[in-house]
Amino acid sequence: MTLSERDQKYNWHPYTQHKTAQSHIAIVKGEGALLWDEKGKEYIDAIASWWVNPFGHSNEFIANAIYTQLTTLEHVLFGGFTHEPAVLLSEKLMEILPQNQEKLFYSDNGSTSVEIAIKVAMQFFFNKGIKKTKIIAFENAFHGDTFGAMAASGISFFVEAFKDSMIEVTRIPVPVKGLEKHSFEALENLVKTNEYAAFIFEPLVLGAVGMVMYEATALDQLISICKEHQVFTIADEVMTGFGKTGKNFACDYLQELPDMMCLSKALTGGTIPMAITSFTQKIFDGFYDDDVNKALFHGHTFTANPTGCAAALASLTLLRTPEMQANLVRVNENHLAFQNKIKQHPKVVTTRVLGVIFALEIKTDGAASYYGSLRNKLYDFFIENGLVLRPVGNIVYILPPYIITDLQLQKVYQVVEEALEIV
Fold first, then answer.
1. CB atoms within 10 A of CB 4
2. Which terminus of the chain has a smaller tally of CB atoms within 10 A, N or C?
3. How confident is the model at residue 368 (pLDDT cuts 50, 70, 90)?
């Protein structure tokens, strides 16, 4: 029995309708930007395994850091205790986070980092006797699958079954080129009601909806509006953080800084689940009180896991090397060259590039559903040709490991171009 067949017996996979889905490909090895399945077939991981793996699979530098930590202290509870990997990681992160971020709360994944930010925003005002129980988010945003994060997400079929059981969230248009004014006006009207605790957003790029991009100047304006009306701003950098946009964080393009930031995915170089939510001192001070009931009663068993912290420290070291910074520039230049080549293709509606993120929209006769026939046809074509790409409806995006070679990138572009001929 193959590994793939054994998998089907017990495992329930994410975002999968198992009645209609094909059997899952069994991966047995990874190295650099490449993966190999149990039959020996090679794939280029052109989306860094859901955006988590910037430095390549089986990275020895990160692996050695993990091994060293495992043989020293694998885990200790963070309630009432601390340890050097967490303290050191916090210190290193403060060197690259926006200057207004001063406190860090550790958790397990992107959804929980968002969950914590939303809870903190709401409890901050509760602690002061102020009722602000609503959240503002972008249309078609995605922030995760736990209840608070799910409520903030706007992809309807992800949340349809739970819509009557969630916190109240009001959505505003994404300020894409030409629609900025609509977004500003919608936000202005909401914050004036004094009912909203926070505005959460994916800075500059909405990932799960198909890498929808908007300008930093527009986000600056939205953050400024929130500041004027004492509404906290939450930057969900789970996808964009740690180099994806060409800078350490998408927020590094801003003049106005968010009150909170959510970090995960590439934090540990794609090795160990870990997340961080960062806060301004003002927010922390809203919980700092003689009254124990005003504390943040939230925690995870593996909060600030030392092994995860060691992986994150190694990942940060790699990110800040001149070689890796050069890779960010190199991948971006390759994307821009491919964009220039493909944007006039008769089947391409639009293309967009930011940092190591590339996306193109394919012309269709009507609306392309998220997991519809076009998407599935494209996905199967990419897999057949040795590429791990997961189109979103009629949007094909590339977000590779930073260490991907130019030759591997050229193959990715070639197969994407060939895919346009089958649609």
1. 16
2. N
3. low
- Was 301 annotated as part of a binding site? yes
- Give tens-digit pLDDT for 30-69: 999 999 999 999 999 999 999 999 999 999 999 999 999 9
Q: What is the pLDDT of residues 344-363, one digit of tens each?
A: 999 999 999 999 999 999 99
The annotation status of 236 as a binding-site residue, yes or no, is yes
pTM: predicted TM-score of the whole model, two decimal places = 0.96
Question: Is 299 annotated for ligand binding?
Answer: yes
pLDDT confidence tier of residue 159, bands split at 50, 70 and 90:
confident
79 annotated to bind ligand? no
Nearest to 143, CA basis, from 49, 232, 208, 71: 208
Q: CATH number for the 3-58+322-419 domain, one of 3.30.750.24, 3.90.1150.10, 3.40.50.2300, 3.40.630.30?
A: 3.90.1150.10
Is 30 within any annotated ligand binding site?
Answer: no
Query: Which CATH number does 64-319 carry?
Result: 3.40.640.10
**Any known ligand binding at 29?**
no
Q: What strand order describes the sheet that includes 357-362?
A: 348-354, 357-362, 395-398
Q: Is 265 annotated as a binding residue?
A: yes
Kindly state the tokens that stand for 413. Answer: 């572009």
Cα 193 to its chain centre, rounded Å, is: 30
